[in-house]
Amino acid sequence: MSENQQLLERHDEKVDPSTGQPALQPADSAKRDGLAKIAIGTVVGALLGAVIGALANKRTAESINNTVINVGNSVKSVAEGVNQTVKDVGDAVKDVAENVNYTVKDVGDAVKGAAAGVTQTVTVTVDAVNGTAEDVSDTVEGTLDALKGAAEGVTQTVKGKVDGVDEQMDTDKQQVKTGTLDKVAPAETPTTYMLVPVEKS
Fold this sequence. Notes:
0% strand, rod-shaped
């Protein structure tokens, strides 16, 4: 060990800085340290004696016992209060969760009902449009049939007139050939009809 370490380890001794040697304590300081120890011992002893004396007194022991019981009851009340508070919070959380579940179910039912209503409306609308389209198609077919019938009637009328004119001409030609034609009737101006083809869709 070095000298420095030895000096550091001697913390009880007072060292004279000029010589590096432990300083000698005067005799009266040793007496003062002893007296201080005796005084501290006396105070501690007196306190212990007072505590023992107080505990020996029946009233003091009952008072301490009641104090300990009251502290225990207070702790018990606080624990019960905390338990009740935790229970109340748990019940509140449970109620909120149940209400959220119920609300979500109601919203789901409402959305489901709305979707069914939309589906029904769309179905009715499509059926109505389909029926209207069929009615329009039937009307167009009826109109086309009527136009076709009218065109055929016009064709028959024209053919009848042309056939009538042909017969008259044949008769007139015969009379001219035979010389029996009394009087030549003025030729009727034939009526011209224009037929427009209509496509059936």
